[in-house]
Amino acid sequence: MKTQEMQKRMRIFFTGVGGQGTLTATTLLARTALEAGLDVVAGEVHGMAQRGGVVESVMLLGGWRSPKLDYGEADVLLGFEPLETLRALPYLQPGGAIFSSSDALPPLSVSLGKAVYPDMPHIMEKARQVAGQCHFVPCRELGIKAGSVQSGNTVLLSVVCSSGVLPFGVDALEAAIKKFLPAKLQESNLKALELGKAYVNK
């Protein structure tokens, strides 16, 4: 059976903050899916050029016409910052899957003392109330271990690709890293990929 016949329609919502590389991660995963022979539509939903502003994007697999996603429609939520994961929960359909960094990047309002950052147990409990499966990953710590903080995003992508929820696996992500990332970034990102695989299998 051809890959196109096997693939199911799936909607993935990405969220993070400016400066984290959320859109770069979206592009890498979309290219991974394309290389795996899947129909892909991806696009930015909301983006703030300023560092710390919310960034949201979507990736739709299986023959969608436009990168549009409403509340309650996402099969998978990928959060690169835990507060933004919490804020994005309305987009996840009940029983969907959440993959999120557990490393906080407090917004300016928190830094200025005008708001309080919710604690991680609260964020995780709210996520588990909605999701069928929920994974919070120490992406920053593992990214540093791999050689760069930025490669923490690849750790998260590796975890979701290793989990079995997508119609392609971590081998496809590895091939995309080798094909699309600049040579100078490949070593740390391939190490991050291995750390993500190990995190899922521990």
TrEMBL record:
SUPFAM superfamilies: Pyruvate-ferredoxin oxidoreductase, PFOR, domain III. Keywords: Oxidoreductase. The keyword Membrane does not apply. One of its GO terms (molecular function) is oxidoreductase activity, acting on the aldehyde or oxo group of donors. Pfam families: POR. InterPro entries: IorB_Oxidoreductase, Pyrv/ketoisovalerate_OxRed_cat, Pyrv_flavodox_OxRed_cen. Residues 18-196 form the Pyruvate/ketoisovalerate oxidoreductase catalytic domain. The keyword Oxidoreductase applies. PANTHER family: INDOLEPYRUVATE OXIDOREDUCTASE SUBUNIT IORB (PTHR43854:SF1). This is Pyruvate/ketoisovalerate oxidoreductase catalytic domain-containing protein. It comes from bioreactor metagenome. The lineage of its organism: unclassified sequences, metagenomes, ecological metagenomes.
